[in-house]
Amino acid sequence: MAELDRQSVECGFVPVIPQFLRQKSDREYQGWFIQSFIKLYQRDSAPPCQSGNGLKNDPIYAVEISFKEEPRMTLCKYVYSTLEHWDKPPSVSEHWFFYWPLYDGNNFTNHESENGVFKRVPNDEKLQKNMVKFKKLFQRKLIYYPLHQRTLRIGCLMS
């Protein structure tokens, strides 16, 4: 994850929190078998929220690394109406908040656009409110390439 942070900073992004988000806690006996890691970023040049919550009033970008079936990386852009009302940055345990918009086909509608980029939107306003004014998600899935085969500049792909 340190290399991901380093590359992202080179491309103008900063980590939202130092840790990655994960579904299982360290206290669970299955905690060692994590299948999905999500790392959050925002643009360094974006203006900070006036509320002083530690976030920037800009989309949240994420990289999800999943080992569920085949190793896969998904680049994401989460768009909210505003982040001013958040009282703090997301915690490690709020993995679900960024995971479910990616995978919940019942509550989010998928719209395919060009170049393998998908746009997902909540199906109703109630869900949008429950997801803290979540408006839409853009995502692009990449198949894992071993580092010795190809160098991938993650941070620059997010912009």
Characteristics:
single chain, 159 residues, alpha+beta, 8-stranded antiparallel β-sheet, 4 helices, 8 strands, 18% helix, globular
Structure, described:
- This protein is an alpha+beta fold.
- Helix content is 18%, strand content 31%.
- Strands 1, 2, 3, 4, 5, 6, 7 and 8 form an 8-stranded antiparallel sheet that branches.
- Strand 4 and strand 5 form a beta hairpin.
- 20% of the residues are buried.
Helices, strands, pairings?
Blueprint: H1 2-10, E1 13-15, E2 21-22, E3 36-43, E4 60-66, E5 72-80, H2 95-103, E6 108-112, E7 117-122, H3 125-130, E8 134-143, H4 154-158
Antiparallel strand pairs: 1-3, 2-3, 3-4, 4-5, 5-8, 6-7, 7-8
Order of helices and strands: HEEEEEHEEHEH
User: What fraction, in percent, of the residue positions are helical?
Assistant: 10-25%
- Overall pLDDT, averaged? 78
Tell me the structural class. Answer: alpha+beta
Point out poorly predicted stretches.
145-152
What would the principal axes of the Cα set say about the shape? Answer: globular
How large is the radius of gyration? 15 Å
Distance between the termini: 19 Å
Main beta-sheet annotation? 8 strands, antiparallel
